Amino acid sequence: MDSLNFLEFHVASEITPGPTPKGRTHSQIAQENDQLQKDMIRNGYNNLPLDDTVSMESVNEVCLHPASENDKEEKQEQADRSLRQSSIATAQNNLQTINKILERLRLEDEDIQPFAVVEEVMPSSPAEEGGMMVGDRIIAIGSADASSVKRFGVSLVGDAVERMEGQELTLLISRVNRVTGRELRELPLKIVPRRWGGEGLLGARFVRLTP
């Protein structure tokens, strides 16, 4: 049989004549089968097994569970599941990055010290979009922290920013709450360095703090 996406029923003329249910003739049965075939093709139930005969059990199964609807629901479930898994993976990666930075800093110096303070945040800059504020004290920018800057110089900050151009860069800052006066330490910021029409990739000016 050709692999066509429609039903093919044996009509009464192809089977040995015998008793018919409820007094129907073989011709009537053939017409009913033919009509059922047309109705199911019109309604999209075209995924029954392509063998020489089709049982009413198969017909009922397809009618009750149309493949098109099942496929749609399954694809939606797969898309939702993939989105949830992607969101969870992203959150886990961000948390791991922050924890690694904090652990490295704690190993080197239990009292984490900032090495720079934000002097200016330019309007509409990546720094402003990422939530940076004037007065924020920088603890780490990517891999650059107080210890490494002290050993290798402030050029590490620029290198860390340039390496992450177009990607999410993790910063750790301390910030004083202007209402309560309480200092918030180890506050993470996510900024994407990029060309934005202003100065630098971040659009912020830092002043190095004296150790």
Fold and architecture overview:
- There is one protein chain.
- This protein has 6 helices and 6 strands; from the N terminus they run αααβαββααβββ.
- The chain is α+β, with helices and mostly antiparallel strands.
- The model is unreliable at 1-18 and 47-53 (pLDDT under 50).
- It has 2 domains: 12-65, no CATH class; 107-208, PDZ domain (Pdz3 Domain, Roll).
- The N and C termini lie far apart (85 Å).
- The protein has helices spanning 26-42, 56-64, 67-108, 126-129, 146-152, 155-163; strands at 116-121, 137-141, 144-145, 169-176, 183-191, 204-208.
- It is rod-shaped, with a radius of gyration of 35 Å.
- Strands 1, 2, 3, 4, 5 and 6 form a 6-stranded antiparallel beta sheet that branches.
Strand content: 15-25%
Mean pLDDT: 76
* Cα Rg: 35 Å
Structural class, from helix and strand content? alpha+beta
What count of helical segments does DSSP give? Answer: 6
The CATH topology of the largest domain turns out to be Pdz3 Domain
**Name of the CATH homologous superfamily of the largest domain:** PDZ domain
Provide the CATH top-level class of the largest domain: Mainly Beta
Structure summary, number of beta strands: 6
- Dominant shape: rod-shaped
Share of helix among residues?
40-55%
- Low-confidence spans: pLDDT under 50, at least 5 residues? 1-18, 47-53
When the domains are counted, the total is: 2
Name of the CATH architecture of the largest domain: Roll
**Main beta-sheet annotation:** 6 strands, antiparallel
